[in-house]
Design brief:
Bound molecules: 2-oxoglutaric acid, fe (ii) ion
Number of strands: 13
Catalytic activity: 2-oxoglutarate + O2 + 2 H(+) = ethene + 3 CO2 + H2O; L-arginine + 2-oxoglutarate + O2 = guanidine + L-glutamate 5-semialdehyde + succinate + CO2
CATH architecture: Sandwich
CATH superfamily: B-lactam Antibiotic, Isopenicillin N Synthase, Chain
GO biological process, one term: ethylene biosynthetic process
Structural class: alpha+beta
Order of helices and strands: EHEHEEHHHEEEEEEHEEEH
EC number: 1.13.12.19, 1.14.20.7
Shape: globular
Largest sheet: 9 strands, mixed
Distance between the termini: 36 Å
Radius of gyration: 18 Å
Organism: Ferrimonas balearica (strain DSM 9799 / CCM 4581 / KCTC 23876 / PAT)
Helix content: 25-40%
Family: Belongs to the iron/ascorbate-dependent oxidoreductase family.
């Protein structure tokens, strides 16, 4: 399996991109419209947030899931027993956010959501008709006006050697949502599991955008688009002393959207959050 960056501006970009999603669950885009300077600024500003003490004032709200999740409550991936080595902030347009960071996050959230709707349009149009006819509504519609899409600012602190045995930055998992959009992080580490079981580094050149299928799109497409397992491995050598910041946007449908005969987006999310131990 290989992951090759698709040029967003190429005439056959939609076909290449959707084929990559089908084969690997992942698609990598270069020359996409999200401004690099905005992403760079968010990484820099949020490093300051995570390094500072103010973060404790934004402790997450258990009912609404917005705010700061310290490393001590960080997720335990499904099927794992140790916590991931990460802390993060959940931003929703309606949720809590430090005033000095709100403009950039809101800007990024808006631009990335618009791009996601376009990419979902590609998935809708270029997938087989029998898959598309199974969607309860067009894919871009599913996220339109959704208040559930979640921008996560993730900080993986430097490793200091006293981490729990077996703990890694993000244990192998699949994303719960419809589609995830993730600008290349400021350090390597993201890996995707191939059909052959081998782990493969996801290209992380600054300026590329990584997109992956989540469980909800796998569910809605009857398994045609795979929600692929991925993880973030610990750095070694010099890199172990450095933080890693990443910025996944998890696109969630409106709660009432029907995914399949078994599930609405809401029932599916509740089942998965319970498994994660965060509700
Ligand atoms: O930090 C990354 O590169 C990926 C994070 C991730 O997979 C997640 O938060 O679901
Ligand atoms: Fe993920």
């Amino acid at each position: 399996m290989t992951l090759t960056a698709v040029d967003y501006r190429a005439p056959d970009a939609p076909a290449q991109f959707v084929e990559s999603l089908r084969q690997t669950g992942f698609g990598v885009l270069k020359n996409h419209p999200i401004p690099e300077q905005l992403v760079e600024r968010i990484y820099r500003d949020w490093q300051g947030f995570f390094d500072g003490e103010n973060k404790t004032r934004y402790h997450f709200n258990r009912d609404t899931q917005d705010g700061f999740f310290p490393a001590s409550v960080s997720e335990v991936a499904k099927g794992h027993s140790v916590k991931d080595l990460k802390e993060y902030f959940h931003y929703y347009p309606w949720g809590q956010c430090p005033a000095e960071h709100k403009a950039d996050l809101a800007d990024y959230y808006g631009q990335a959501t618009t791009l996601a709707a376009e990419l979902l349009g590609w998935v809708q149009q270029l997938g087989p008709d029998n898959v598309a006819s199974g969607y309860a509504e067009p894919l871009p519609n599913m996220i339109e006006g959704s208040e559930k899409s979640l921008l996560r600012v993730l900080h993986y602190p430097p490793l200091n050697g006293d981490e729990a045995a077996g703990a890694i930055r993000a244990a192998a998992h699949e994303d719960i949502n419809l589609l995830t959009i993730l600008p290349a992080a400021n350090a390597r580490g993201l890996q995707v599991k191939g059909r052959d079981g081998q782990w493969l580094d996801v290209p992380c050149d600054f300026g590329t955008l990584i997109v992956n299928i989540g469980d909800m799109l796998q569910e809605a497409s009857g398994g045609y688009f795979p929600s692929t397992t991925h993880r973030v491995v610990n750095p070694e050598g010099e890199a172990a002393n450095q933080s890693r910041i990443s910025l996944p946007l998890f696109l969630h449908p409106r709660p009432e959207v029907v995914l399949s005969e078994r599930h609405t987006a809401h029932s599916y999310l509740m089942e998965r959050l319970r498994e994660l131990g965060v509700i």
